């Protein structure tokens, strides 16, 4: 059994194209008996898809908005990616709405020895890294 965590960085809207991709993959992995978790931004009204994933056995970690995270980090109330320790993933799938964003997530995985892959669903040539 493999432990897979999906980390969505979607900020603008509750659900998008990359969420559709990882949600379908998460359901397939759950049906195959793998342990699946997902980290997702907390929204006032969570997307219905998250409830379906949770009902199927996915462990959800809902993150606070970026202001709350920055305040907590500033006053050392929490380590921003400490939830990665709880999921103990064998691999992480990080979905980025644009590049480069959430490089800290990659660093958080690297520090914990968690292999990761990055899905950039809304890649734009004018926002890509030049080197």
Explained architecture:
The protein is of the alpha/beta class and 131 residues long. Helix content is 35%, strand content 22%. The chain contains five helices and five strands. It has helices at 17-31, 48-55, 66-74, 83-87, 103-111, and strands at 3-8, 35-41, 59-63, 91-96, 116-120. Strands 3-2-1-4-5 form a five-stranded parallel beta sheet, sandwiched between helices. Helix 2 (48-55) links the parallel strand 2 and strand 3 (59-63). The longest helix is centred in the first third of the chain and has 15 residues, at 17-31. It is globular, with a radius of gyration of 15 Å.
List the helices and strands and how they pair.
Elements: E1 3-8, H1 17-31, E2 35-41, H2 48-55, E3 59-63, H3 66-74, H4 83-87, E4 91-96, H5 103-111, E5 116-120
Parallel strand pairs: 1-2, 1-4, 2-3, 4-5
